[in-house]
Amino acid sequence: MAFRKFIKSVLLGIPIGVTFLDCVGYVARVDGISMQPALNPDASQTDYVFLSRWAVRTCNVDRGDIVSLISPKDPTQKIIKRIVGLQGDVVSTLGYKHEIVRIPEGHCWVEGDHTGHSLDSNTFGPVAQGLLTARATFIVWPPERWRRLQTELPRRRRPIQIAKSASYYSQ
Amino acid sequence: MVSILSRVKDVIKYSMMYACLTHCTFEYVGDFVVCNGPSMEPTLHSKNILLTERISTRFHNPRRGDIIIAVSPTDPKQFICKRIVGIPGDRIVLKNNTRPIEADIDVLVINKKQKVNEFQDEYVPRGYIWIEGDNSENSSDSRYYGPIPLGLVKSRVVCRLWPIKEARML
After folding, report:
1. CB B24 to CB A23 under 8 A?
2. B96/A122 Cα distance (integer angstroms)
3. Which residue range forms the structural domain that includes residue A66?
4. Which residues of B touch A15 (CB under 8 A)?
5. Contacts of A161 (CB under 8 A, 6+ apart)
6. Is residue A11 part of a domain?
7. Which of A16, A74, A131 sits opposite B152 (nearest CB)?
8. Taking CB atoms and an 8 Å limit, are B149 and A127 in contact across chains?
9. Structural domain tally of chain A?
10. Chains A, B: CB contacts under 8 A, how many?
11. Which residue of the set B39, B139, B142, B155 is catalytic?
12. What are the φ and ψ backbone dihedral angles of A34, each rounded to 5 degrees?
C-alpha cells in the first residue's frame, strides 16, 4: 500500500516539477569560454547559473541582459550570450558580412563577452527573439562566485544608434 | 471553521495539480490552436480549430509538406501556421528576384542535383527550414523573411477538429 502511495505521489509530482521548471526557472551549467570574464572566468571551474524563465515570459529583454537561447544553427543546442542590440538598433559588427547592421523586426543581436572566442551574431547574424528561452540572473555555484548577473554592456559594444521606441517597425 | 479551511486547502491543491497536468500536456504532448488569417487558404480557413502535436517536433527532423505552428520571426508574441517547403540542404528558387518581395513570385523547390540558371536561388542552411503559406498571393512567409530557424517550430498540425463537417487529417 505504501508503495502504491509512493508511485502515485511520484506521478503527480513530476508534472508539478516540470511546470515549475518551465515557468519559474532552472539551474544550468555553463560550458565554454565564450562569456569570459562574466561567466567561467577560470577555465578550471565551471559556473552554474540560474536561468529565469519567468523573466522572458513577455519577451521583454533589455540590452546587456545575459540570455540563453536555442542556437539557430543547431536546434538541439542552447547557447548563452549577452544581448547587444534589439529590433531597430544599428550595431557595428565584428567580422560579420556587413560592417553595420540594422536589426530587423523581432530580432536581436547577441554576442559573447569574450570577443573573438564566441560563436554569436557575428557569425550567424541577428537571431529571432522567439529563440530566447530564459534570462540568466544569478551565478549559484560555486558558492564563492555567488552573485547577481548585472545588465551591462561594454561602452565599445553599445549600438551606434538605438531605436527610438520599441516599436520602430510599427510606425 | 477548520472544515472550511481544509476544504479551501483541498480546492487549491487539486486546482494546482490539474493546472500543472494541463500545462505539461499542452507543452509536451499537443494542444489546440484556432487559426486566423488567410495565408493557409484553401487548406485552412479562419476560425478553424486544429489539433497539434509536440512530440515529433522535439526531434527536429522536419519533413516537407508538414503544416507547422511556429513562433513568428518578426514578432515573438505571435504564432504562425505555415507549410514546410524546404528542409536543410534544399535549394529554393525565387523566380525573378529576391526578397523582400512583391506578391507574384513563384517558388519552386528542386532537388540539389537539378540545375536551373535563370532564377535567383538560395540554399536552406543547416538548422533552418523554408516555410510558406498555401495562399501564395496573401501570405508573408520565408519569401519575405527568409528561412526560419528550426528552434522556432513549436508543433505540427495533425488534424482539423472544427468545423465538424470538414474534420479530417492534414
Report:
1. no
2. 30
3. 2-163
4. 17, 20-21, 23-24
5. A89, A90
6. yes
7. A131
8. yes
9. 1
10. 76
11. B39
12. -70, -20
Question: Considering only CB atoms, which chain A residues are within 8 Å of B29?
Answer: none
Q: How far apart are the first and last CA of chain A?
A: 65
Residue type, B136: S
Asked if residue A171 is part of any domain, the answer here is no
Residue A88 is predicted with a pLDDT of 87
B142 in active site: no
Question: Which residues partner with B128 through β-bridges?
Answer: B149
Closest CA to A16 of B32, B58, B13, B57: B13
Q: Chain B residues within 8 A (CB-CB) of chain A? A: 16-17, 19-21, 23-24, 27-28, 60, 70-77, 125-128, 145, 148-152
Query: What residue type is B129 in one-letter code?
Result: I
ipTM reported for the complex, 2 dp: 0.81
| Residue-wise pLDDT tens digits, B92-102 | 877 644 444 33
Residues 6 or more apart whose CB falls under 8 angstroms from that of B54 comprise B27, B28, B29, B30, B31, B154, B155, B156
Cell 513577455, residue located = A58
CATH of the domain at B8: 2.10.109.10
Model pLDDT for residues B124-148, shown as the tens digit of each residue: 888 899 998 888 888 888 888 888 9
Q: Which residues of B touch A76 (CB under 8 A)?
A: 60
